[in-house]
Specification:
44% of the residues lie in helices and 20% in strands. The chain has 11 helices and 10 strands. The strands form 2 sheets. It has an 8-stranded mixed sheet with strand order 1-2-4-3-7-8-9-10, sandwiched between helices. The chain is globular and about 80 Å long.
Length: 287
């Protein structure tokens, strides 16, 4: 009986210590958005040891694709397992991973043409300041990265293009980087019956959301301040747009990694991409 009384506290102490060293995922967190006038959901991955340590961590903003929400990377991307393994074997440094929801109210990571739906403003002006105040996050460009798949790959590309001062690295995966002409864009707006009072704003909006135009219009040195990593399957329907961006960056001598692997537009491909992404952004964090 005496032995049991001694061992039980030790057992529970050891058990609580082991549990505290495990990673944690919260996939239904919420915050209020004044910009979008609604409650927004997001998910957070906290690395092993977060609850025991006092230090701050780098952060990765990980964006989902069309049809998913903040739970996509958690459920189908297996982010917890993959991150745990990468941190355990030393191929990546422990970090906090933030996964926002861009599929409620309207779908997408950008402000709309009429500026009635301002998701991009929400992301930069509300979401980022909120999560970086709630968690022990290193709020510096050097320790902040962004990645995402498909629609979220497009979000990754354009967010880093629009705000290169905020991200040390950007990793678009199977990114939605269609390069339509301005005439095609105007026809689509007319078909969707989007009414624009200021016609000049149509060109400005097109320029801001067209991949090759961003390379033409933005400061090359600011683009170079971001470490770029692209990954797209050889059977992916978005292969062409990603390849055109790669060719344009090559001609402009903008350093970047460009990967074409066997695969299509699916979670099997992206689960294989994520460990490489974690390693790539970790190298940037360490520089």
């Amino acid at each position: 009986m005496i032995i049991i009384r001694i061992l039980l506290p030790l057992f529970f102490l050891t058990l609580s210590g082991l549990m505290a060293q495990q990673s944690r995922v919260f996939d239904a967190l919420t915050m209020d958005s004044k910009i979008l006038n609604m409650e927004r959901k997001f998910a957070v991955y906290l690395p092993p040891g977060y609850e025991y340590s006092q230090r701050s961590y780098p952060v990765l903003y990980l964006l989902h694709g069309a049809g998913d929400d903040q739970t996509g990377w958690v459920q189908f991307g297996e982010v917890q397992r993959i991150a745990d393994e990468a941190f355990a074997d030393g191929t990546a440094t422990p970090m906090i991973i933030v996964m926002p929801d861009a599929n409620t109210g309207k779908r997408g990571y950008f402000n709309d043409l009429t500026n009635d739906w301002r998701y991009e403003d929400f992301f930069f002006e509300e979401l980022m300041p909120y999560v970086e105040s709630q968690y022990r996050i290193k709020s510096e460009k050097k320790y902040r990265a962004i990645s995402g798949l498909s629609m979220g790959g497009g979000g990754t590309y354009f967010y880093a293009m629009h705000r290169p001062d905020l991200f040390s690295s950007a990793c678009p995966l199977s990114a939605s980087l269609r390069n339509s002409s301005f005439e095609d864009f105007k026809e689509r707006m007319a078909k969707d019956k989007v009414s624009v009072k200021d016609k000049a704003s149509l060109q400005a909006y097109f320029d801001k959301h067209q991949a090759l135009r961003q390379l033409e219009l933005n400061d090359p040195e600011e683009i170079k301040s971001v470490k770029w990593f692209f990954d797209c399957g050889d059977d992916d329907f978005l292969y062409e747009g990603n390849s055109l961006v790669h060719i344009a960056m090559k001609k402009m001598e903008i350093p970047h990694e460009f990967r074409i692997r066997d695969g299509a537009h699916n979670w099997t491909y992206w689960r294989d991409s994520l460990p490489v992404v974690l390693g790539f952004i970790s190298q940037t964090f360490h520089q």
